[in-house]
Amino acid sequence: MTQRTVLDAPDMKRAMTRIAHEIIESNKGADDLVLLGIPRRGVPLATRLAEQIASISGREGSAADLVGSLDITMYRDDLRGGAYRAPEPTTIPAAGIDSKTVVLVDDVLFSGRTIRAALDALSDLGRPAKVRLAVLVDRGHRDLPIRADHVGKNLPTSSSERVNVSLAEIDGEDAVTISGGRE
Amino acid sequence: MTDYLIRGADVLGRGAADIAIRNSTIVDPELLDPTSSDVEVIDAGGLVALPGLVDMHTHLREPGKEDAETILTGSRSAAAGGFTCVHAMANTAPVADTAGVVEQVHRLGRTAGFTEVVPIGAVTIGLAGEQLAELGAMARSAARVRMFSDDGICVSDPLLMRRALEYVKTFDGVIAQHAQEPRLTEGAQMNEGVVSAELGLPGWPAVAEESIIARDVLLAEHVGSRLHVCHVSTAGSVDLIRWAKSRGINVTAEVTPHHLMLTDELVRTFDPVYKVNPPLRTDADISALREALADGTIDVVGTDHAPHTAEHKCSEWTAAAMGMVGMETALPIVVEAMRDYDFDFGDLARVMSSSPARITGASGHGSLEVGASANIVLIDPNSAHSIVPDDHATKGRNNPFAGLEVKTTITDTFFYGHRVLAGGELSTPHPAGASWTDQ
Amino acid sequence: MKHLLDTVSLSRDEAISILDIAEEMTQVSEREVKKLPVLRGRTVVNLFFEDSTRTRLSFEAAAKRLSADVLNFSAKGSSVSKGESLQDTIQTISAMGADALVVRHSGAGTPHRLAHTGWIDVPVVNAGDGTHEHPTQALLDAFTLRRALGGFPASGAVKDGPRGRGLDGAKVAIVGDILHSRVARSNVHLLSRLAAEVHLVAPPTLLPWGVETWPVTLHYDLDEALRSEDFAAVMMLRVQHERMHESFFPNEREYARLWGLSAARLAGLPEETFIMHPGPMNRGFEISAAAADSPRALVLDQVENGVSVRMAVLYRLLTGREETND
User: What is the pTM of this model?
Assistant: First the structure.
């Protein structure tokens, strides 16, 4: 199977730094901001963004206060079919999400179904003032009317290709590769 | 009636020989002319000839539960299983505790004409265990009852048991005891053991059987009577019977095909087809029972054929009725169970024909000698097949051996000279109607 | 996993995965919306052939928090009491469109039978069958113990709860009528599968024949057991009233004196020993009021966790297609 690297570690670092700046800019600072990563790979990305935002904005308090995880397993629209999925933890920063700007963070934006589920999950947890979406890669092929506010890289793909995101925290290295697809 | 010349069957496993049947009697083969159109010659090469089987223990359900079995369907099932004589247990509705009921069963058996149906009389009125039934009247009736049993229920009152044992000496009768101490088995659902502990089903301990057998053999010794122990199921019971026989006590014992083959591990399926009384026991019990059958401690195989309607078996375990059918699978199962023991076709004939005939006084059965009544079964010992209860003649579908591979097939049954089972297919009832024994 | 019929066939991994899902489920009670959409449009039938308001309510709450529709069928006043067969009852329920059956029955094995006869093809949860098993009770006991022994609040939502863990090395005493207890049977299998060390304390009349083959240590004498072992938890079992006159023990007074968790025995327990009871309790008989109401008693935590554990079980059985190669 052919596999090509589309983002290497320095590319990813640059992309994340740019997103961090964009978030601060659009939020006019780091106040009332909550970053919620979607398991699994959205969670370390949200943590990285939170650390960068904390250091760029010089905000008081630790980066950990900014970040949490939002599991969407129990909001999926395909729970009856497919393999059984164990739910992952959802953790919300102590200050909660009410009246905050919540930035959902995920690795790849594809059909949009995950984000649809995340919006449902979020509305059961509280009432944020605004919800934004940050993704490392937007590969297109949306099934739902959903778009990202912050994108690391727009990646034109064919629907038969696979986009693989590796993260140092989970996979030991940072890289985005594409595999499969028709020649 | 057609005369038969059975050619080349392995008689009792002792070698090929011819057997000739004229009217309802075994005759010298020289007497038959094989070229005569009145003589049907059967090539029985590769088959084994045994005397027709005798079942000391079957439930034909009529009168009262004709939806489960009738005397006709039960008789057809017997013929298909090679049985030329079956003893019908008394727990019908009404109970066979009067001359009237036993004569009715006797008459219906004769009308059916596929096997000799001998009624067993109840020991106590209504099987209630309180008062002796009219044993003498049943013995002197047309049914000539010699064996009495409250089977399904134990005659637990020791005094009543003593009286019954004594009383039947009048006509050389025998009491067949269902050995089950009632207090020790209240609510019992399965063998008490490691499996019942895990499944949480109330247990039926071996001691409930053994304590009654111990008591009854001592009573039989004390009053000098004959005792028959139904469906022995535990290793401890075997020890007690062996001890009793060594003391010269006049006791005989029976084992069922299922207790020779199946264990309580099957209850883990919670499938009520495995629910039976006494319950399926353990591997150790099976080994003891097989050894006892081989060495003669256990005298006979009795089927305890107990048909039930689907309603009584297609339910939860605890609500299901106890019992299994088995006349049509008894012989093949016994062959499989005893395969690793010193147990030949002669032994098979002993435990399934001549011994039960002797114990019950069924004089027309149990022998292939010239002059004996022509009650004969032919079996094919090398015809592997798997058991399909839906193909059986009994109404009962509660056969626990469904799907089991066996090597033996019953091909022909001759009932007082009439071929009621021919090449594995049931044919017609005995043409002499109700008077076949008077031939 | 297609059904939950017992704990004896539950692997350690499966058990831990259910407990971990239950950890997520505890979060729901703290949320703005105390409901998950997981089972929306699906129907869970509570089929109770034996009365048990507590267990039925717990399953009902669990199913409703997962947005399922719940139908309650109790044998009392139903056609079952008029002689309808189990098969007809089940096929009727099947025709009404059940997606799962939660079954309580006085006869051991009935849930197992329903799961395997082909009368209905939906997941079956055993909510207690005769004196056989009560797997969700054992799971909620294990959940409560895992919390308490890990130093977490015994119930409610906690951040970073004891996910992934078993009960390795914990000594647990189960005291009382083991013979007639489905809770005891399920706990013996589950707790030992989770590597706890299970001790049974009971008069010999209330232990099943063959109990020596179980993975447990046996004690007849409660005081001696409490003296010789450092129990992390003591689980008292209810003694049914009908047992009290069947000569399993001479009388209530003697039982309470020898096998009850009296105030004096409570005082003698190490401070870190927890007290459990599956309920309903016979206060003053197998458990004193002092023990039942002590801060170490986890009785109400057990009840609260029951809902989360049953949510986890329903989630586990009703989501995901069953893999064909089990």
Answer: 0.92
CATH 3.20.20.140 fits B53-360, yes or no: yes
Torsion angle, CA of B65/B68/B70/B71, rounded to 10 degrees?
Answer: -100
As annotated, the residues of chain B forming the CATH 2.30.40.10 domain(s) are 3-48+372-431
Place of tokens 């009543």: B160
Crossing angle, helix C12-28 and helix C299-318, to 10 degrees? 110
The domain made up of B3-48+372-431 has a fold known as Urease, subunit C; domain 1 (2.30.40)
Task: With beta carbons under 8 A apart, name residues in chain A contacting C33.
Answer: 123-125
Using CA atoms, how far apart are residues B162 and B97, in angstroms rounded to an integer?
18
Q: Which amino acid is at B127?
A: L
Does residue B51 sit in helix, strand or coil?
strand
B neighbour chains, 3+ CB pairs within 8 Å = C
Residue C247: strand pairing partners: none
Q: CATH 3.20.20.140 in chain B, residues?
A: 53-360
Strand B376-380 and strand B409-415: pairing? antiparallel
Architecture of domain C135-298 in CATH?
3-Layer(aba) Sandwich (3.40)
Q: Quick one: closest CA in A to C318, which residue?
A: A80
Distance from CA of C177 to the nearest CA of A (A): 36
Q: Active-site residue among B10, B55, B299, B304?
A: B304
B196 with C210: Cβ contact below 8 A:
yes
Listed residue (B270, B267, B278) closest to B229, CA to CA: B278
User: What residues does each domain of chain C span?
Assistant: 12-132+303-324, 135-298
Q: Would residue B304 show up in a list of annotated catalytic residues for this protein?
A: yes
Probe site for chain A from C18, C19, C20, C24 (most A CB atoms < 10 A): C24
Chain A neighbours (≥3 Cβ pairs under 8 A) are: C
pLDDT tens, chain C, 326 aa long: 899 999 999 999 999 999 999 999 998 888 878 899 999 999 999 999 988 899 999 999 999 999 999 999 887 655 555 567 888 888 888 888 999 999 999 999 999 999 998 889 999 999 999 999 999 999 999 999 999 999 999 999 998 889 999 999 999 999 999 999 999 999 999 999 999 999 999 999 999 999 999 999 999 999 999 999 999 999 999 998 877 778 899 999 999 999 999 999 999 999 999 999 998 999 999 999 999 999 999 999 999 999 999 999 999 999 986 544 33
Give C12-132+303-324's CATH code, choosing from 3.40.50.300, 1.10.10.10, 3.40.50.1370, 3.40.1360.10.
3.40.50.1370
